[in-house]
Amino acid sequence: MLSTIQHSSFLKIIINILTIIALLLAMGLSIAYGAVDINLSTVWQAIINFDRDITSHQVIQELRLPRAIAAALVGAFLAVSGAIMQGMTRNPLASPSIMGVTNGAAFALVLTMAFIPGVSGLGLTIASFAGAGIAVVLVFMVGSFSTGGLTPVKLALAGVAIGTLLSSVSTIIALHFKLEKQLGFWLAGGLAGTNWSSIQVLLISGAIGIFIAFMIAKSITVLNLGEDVAVGLGQNNIVIKILGILTVLILTGAAVSVAGAIGFMGLIIPHMSRFIMGTDFRWIIPSSALFGALLLVLSDIVSRLINAPYETPVGAITSLIGVPFFLYLARGSSGGGK
Amino acid sequence: MNPIYQKKTGRFIGIIALLIVLIITMFFISLSTGVINIAPLDVVRTIIGQGTERQGLVLFDFRLPGIILALLIGSGLAVSGVILQGVTQNDLADPGILGINTGAGLAVVLFIFFIQDSLNTTLSIFIMPLFALVGALFAAFLVYTLAWKNGVNPIRLVLVGIGVNAGFSAALIIFQLKMNPQDFRQATVWLSGDIWSANWSFVLALLPWILILVPYALHKANVLNVLNLGDDVAAGLGSKVEGDRRLLLLIAVALAGASVAAGGAIAFLGLVVPHIARRIIGPLHQYIIPISTLIGALLLMVSDTIGKNLLTPTEIPAGVVVAVLSTPYFVYLLVKTK
């Protein structure tokens, strides 16, 4: 069954279309469900035929629509980042959260909040990019300076170490400047605070990030065969890697600045789409984006349902949904990165 | 005895002596520093019963239990890490990464949530480690079974550990948010690896575990050496590989579970200390275990003291300080070793 899908572009397109339909339905549900349930036809009306005088239309336009869109975008960004990282490093464990990228972004956010009180939303986003960048550079530096080179295990170890260091320093700063609550939010992740300006940030970064991701998808497929093979095929690996890292920074930075560090998305979704779509990143990247968006929108709904009227951190939900699947994959792997 | 062994034994005794001197020095420094400073001389005077009543109260009721607890937890987690890394032949293994700490944490949170109110305080302090132990065992059992597929491949073990860890953390967050505010606070403080609320009952609850299991681990050092050579060699040398592995895992899990119950999840200590010890003394577990015990104890005591005094009145959890102190060295090790 799976191998049939992997060899048929037609079936792959069908799967992607089905995912898009599921995603739209999930977003509709996400908008309809809340403190006051609104039926789907009102949701539709509020979007195509907005009436300022109807309260439910306002709720939808100001709160729920941006939230649903943000969930879809953040999910897509984290998943695509993960796919690129796994493809480039040939490491099944590579993902924004394990490689310390999300911790780096949270670190920079706390630092900025502590020393520049009242910083603007744009300032925070830039800080988040910078932090993600510092973490990636550190992890790759540690990895590549080591004797024996950038092995998968070494990269994962470096990521864990740098991530732990950055998050510990963030904790100290947060404790000292009484920013525990904000840090807690970024580390747990959540979509409650999203509004249209977050969507702007996401759309601009996404336009650039996703564009580069599609551009380099083919090269990542080649890179994933091994560096030697890629060089043999005449590919300039350095340029591809720099572009890849840049994409990861842009996408993860934007996602973390809006929704915090939502764990496990970037790890699981790429495995899932590779499992279904095969080894070609021109298919893996788009389907990662779609699966990621779908998973996060659904998780966001569950996070509001599970302990209503309180919200449960959405990262906890994505983990609970993702873990069984991840374990299944881990068992199937013949030892992972080898 | 051959000369290399003699030289090694000499070095070993020297290092042990050095560590003990360091621990004793730090012990007195820790006792004398704090919000109320007590001069080292007064500390000695108080210990032999010549101090003022107030000094006696501060030392015996507040500082001493915390410091002793730090020593015990540090050694427990360090030895647990040594065993796990030896048994799995995996440098990445430690009670944190393998989900054992989180398993213990989840069990304790469930205990606070469901059972605690029906027991009196002293009783619950002694029962909590048992719960933590059950949680730790369950996590270890889960990771081991899920990673089992014609034997346990080290990389698969770590992958499964990361998965189980993420699942438990998610469940932990969800349960925690369902608690009433008072229980929530207790659980949060406990989970962040906080030892300063320690009292003598915690010390008494943890002491027997450390006193029995650490020497027993030392007694089994040779088995660890043999297992470290790889499964095939170990079997060839007459080791009942799986049986030995399970027994040692049980010790490691018990040590981690009891330590976590007393001090919360202190990340990274079990990962980094064995690496440092191996670096100092080489691969023989007869040497690694005692040295790790002392380094672990020293590291946690120092971290606890720094955490309490660095940014007063803000108290930084000891676990956070451990991470900040040890990650740079860990990164250095990562770069230097193959």
CATH fold name of chain B:
ABC transporter involved in vitamin B12 uptake, BtuC
The DSSP helix count of chain A reads 14
CATH class (first level) name of chain B: Mainly Alpha
Helix count from the secondary structure assignment of chain B = 14
| Count of DSSP strands of chain A | 0
Task: Estimate the helix proportion of chain B, in percent.
Answer: over 70%
Secondary-structure class of chain B: mainly alpha
The termini of chain B sit apart by 31 Å
Helix content of chain A: over 70%
Organism (chain A): Virgibacillus litoralis
Membrane topology (chain A): Multi-pass membrane protein
Transmembrane segments (chain A): 12-36, 68-85, 97-116, 122-143, 155-177, 197-217, 238-269, 281-298, 310-330
Pfam families (chain A): FecCD
Would you kindly provide a written description of the structure presented here, covering whatever features stand out?
In chain A, 77% of the residues lie in helices and 0% in strands. Chain A has 338 residues and is an all-alpha fold. Chain A has a single domain (2-31, 71-332), classed as Orthogonal Bundle (ABC transporter involved in vitamin B12 uptake, BtuC). Chain B has 338 residues and is mostly helical. Chain B has a single domain (3-336), classed as Orthogonal Bundle (ABC transporter involved in vitamin B12 uptake, BtuC). Chain B has 14 helices and no strands. Classes of the chains: A mainly alpha (338), B mainly alpha (338). At the A-B interface, helix 7 and helix 14 of A face helix 6 and helix 14 of B. Chain B: The chain crosses the membrane at residues 12-36, 64-84, 96-115, 121-145, 157-177, 197-218, 247-272, 284-302, 314-335. Chain B: InterPro entries: ABC_BtuC-like (IPR037294), ABC_transptr_permease_BtuC (IPR000522).
Task: Record keyword descriptors for this entry.
A: 338 residues, mainly alpha, B: 338 residues, Iron complex transport system permease protein (chain A), membrane (chain A), transmembrane (chain A), ABC_BtuC-like (chain A)
